[in-house]
Amino acid sequence: QVQLVESGGGLVQAGGSLRLSCAASGRVFNSYNMGWFRQAPGKEREFVATISWSGDGTYYADSVKGRFTISRDNAKNTVYLRMNSLKPEDTAVYYCNLYPPDNKNWGQGTQVTVSS
Questions:
Q1: Could you write out the three-class secondary structure of 49-94?
Q2: Which residues contact residue 112 at a Cβ distance below 8 angstroms, ignoring those fewer than 6 apart?
Q3: pLDDT value at residue 83
């Protein structure tokens, strides 16, 4: 099992930016594809972005493509999500996990709130 701790969320105005971090420990981090997911109030958790174990492959949900960038630093066991041009509809709790996600690994998440 891998332990995941998300951070970097906050309150930001529409059009602003944030960078989320996910620190991993436990299993060998750099052997796994990683992903970011989010859950808005009253909605199901949804996929946001994924990155391959080597970092050279990424894929995004259509709703964030061109605005969000996923990256990773395997030396630091950390995956990042840079979010630009934020919109109120990006408001959610953001989680990282393996990709595909392992239900044993969901952490507390980090809250992102975008005001209009």
A1: EEECCCCCCEEECCCCCCCEEEEEEHHHCEEEEEECCCCHHHCEEE
A2: 9, 10, 12, 18, 20, 38, 83, 86, 90, 91, 92, 93, 94
A3: 98
Strand order in the sheet with 2-7: 2-7, 18-26, 78-83, 68-73
Contacts of 66 (CB under 8 A, 6+ apart): none
**Distant-in-sequence, close-in-space partners of 109: CB < 8 Å, separation ≥ 6:** 6, 39, 93, 94, 95
Please compute, for residue 115, the number of CA atoms within 13 A of its CA located in the half-sphere on the CB side. 4
- pLDDT above 80: residue 21: yes
Name the token pair of 20: 């989320």
pLDDT computed for residue 25 by the predictor: 87
Checking if the pLDDT of 20 tops 90, the result is yes
Do 83 and 112 form a contact (C-beta atoms < 8 A)? yes
Asked if pLDDT for residue 86 goes beyond 90, the answer is yes
Mean pLDDT computed over 87-107: 95
Residue type, 48: V
